[in-house]
Amino acid sequence: MSSFTPVELKHASRLLNHGAVVLVTSQSGQTRNIMAAAWSMPVEFTPPRVAVVIDKNTFSKQLISESGVFGLCIPGAALAKTTYAVGSCSGRDLAEAGDKFQQFGLTPITGPVLGLPLLEQGCAAWLECRLIPEPHSEQAYDTCFAEVVSAAADPRIFANGRWDFRDDNQDLHSLHHLGAGTFIVSGRTLDY
């Protein structure tokens, strides 16, 4: 007999969903947006490819569909409140009065390959991504597949191809969403 308690299927994804939160940036023409996403992962090594779940009804998904590109920024612990905030409102609602970058005082840099708005301040890393078209599934599913065309990281926390979580760089430790607005921060390293 199991000692585990059943989990409602609507919460089953939360059992796996504590990878690093990303901030998805998008731009089509002069219109830009930023949103938080809890579901992202690498799916190929060479060329590097990623998958990220972006609800097909969001403003970000609209801009990504129009432009074929998006950015993934990995916010550090210092951006927890901002990460939650940009993930809790729609860029469509702000389009008349500016955008979420302006609303939340975020100053992006311009990506070197795709020209996307990317965040460095408060972030551990960023990736510029080119959407891999999946016409047969784009209307039915929320998962976007993309090839990473450029990436950069803050050397205080990622260098020589490895993460280095230390006490002196805690503001850059990655955020992990547990659901319902609750986050944990990575930190304890085990070496074997």
Word description of this protein:
This protein has 192 residues and is an alpha+beta fold. The protein has one domain: Pnp Oxidase, Chain A (Roll). 15% of the residues lie in helices and 35% in strands. It is built from 5 helices and 13 strands. It has a 7-stranded antiparallel beta sheet, sandwiched between helices. It is globular and about 55 Å long. The relative contact order is 0.20. The mean pLDDT is 90.
What are the salient characteristics of this protein?
two-stranded antiparallel ribbon, 192 residues, alpha+beta, globular, Pnp Oxidase, Chain A, single chain
SSE map:
Blueprint: E1 22-28, E2 31-37, E3 40-44, E4 49-53, H1 59-67, E5 69-75, H2 80-86, H3 91-94, H4 100-103, E6 109-110, E7 117-118, E8 123-131, H5 135-138, E9 143-153, E10 158-159, E11 162-163, E12 175-179, E13 182-185
Antiparallel strand pairs: 1-2, 1-5, 3-4, 4-9, 5-8, 6-7, 8-9, 10-11, 12-13
Strand order of the largest sheet: 2-1-5-8-9-4-3
What is the highest CATH level, the class? Mainly Beta
Q: Tell me the span between the first and last alpha carbons.
A: 35 Å
CATH architectural type: Roll
Structural class: alpha+beta
> Unreliable runs, pLDDT <50, ≥5 residues?
none
Largest sheet: 7 strands, antiparallel
Order of helices and strands: EEEEHEHHHEEEHEEEEE
What's the CATH superfamily, by name? Electron Transport, Fmn-binding Protein, Chain A
